[in-house]
Amino acid sequence: MNRQPRAVVFAYHSVGVRAIQVLQALGVEIALILTHQDDPGENTWFDSVRDVADWAGIPCLAPEDPNTPQLRDTLAACAPDWLFSFYYRRLLAPELLAIPTQGAFNLHGSLLPSYRGRAPLNWVLVHGEHQTGMSLHRMLVKPDAGALVDQETVPIFPNDTAAVLMPRLLCAGERLLLRALPAMFDGRASETAMDLSAGSYFGGRRPEDGRIDPGASAWSIHNLIRAVAPPYPGAFLYHQGQRLDLLGSWYQGEAARAPQAALYWEDDCCWLDGSDGERIRITRIEIEGAPLSAARCRDRFDCARLELG
Fold this sequence. Notes:
The protein is α/β, with parallel strands linked by helices. The protein has eight helices and 16 strands. Helix 1 packs parallel to helix 6 and helix 5 (120-126) runs antiparallel to helix 7 (218-228).
């Protein structure tokens, strides 16, 4: 294309903010941005797409349903060459995907076809993966299924939390877009069909999915804790009907002190023995919103060692 590319953008989250800034840096004319209203029940710790649209003077809408005939007409009137989706949470109808003359493309936070679907940042940690990344792909009606344009890989270290991994993914997304978009605009980009049978799909996560299985291995428990640690809702378990919030952990392959699952204090440190003969250090533990110490544990449970099996 010889003229300035023109796009409509569906975006949310810090990923959306950074991707919009990449488009601007590449000289893309953004005719319209569509985002979400923030959910009052969600901790919105991430950057605001609406704020960036306001600062840049770009029209911005936040429809409850993006697939109405009225919105379809609005998008068509923008006459976009491209449609981009950057962490937008709703599926787009085929009528919308057909509007841009050069196609619709999505930036997804995993190495597709693995971890298609919702919350890939959290799921890769739950499953103890050693790497993840960002994928740019053509959009189809089926989610995260269109041909791949490019990917950028990032490592996952054993004690990374979702909050630590997210900035790494933001930078990977920027590198990917800065590399891939100029080739797309010039007609030089190639696409590779995605083999969905070689991948995986996961749905969204709820706060109750953070409940710890005391019979799990120390590594599995650590993975859940770091996957949902703040600013996410956090992992938890119950003992004698009281909820314990385990909001941080550290893994280094230490041997457990006993053959059964337990939570206890040793040298002023809190530890959790898993079912696999290993233990993890619990770096942040709370009850009713306040830190739980060995002394407070004795006050609550008459001991500083809680058998969890």
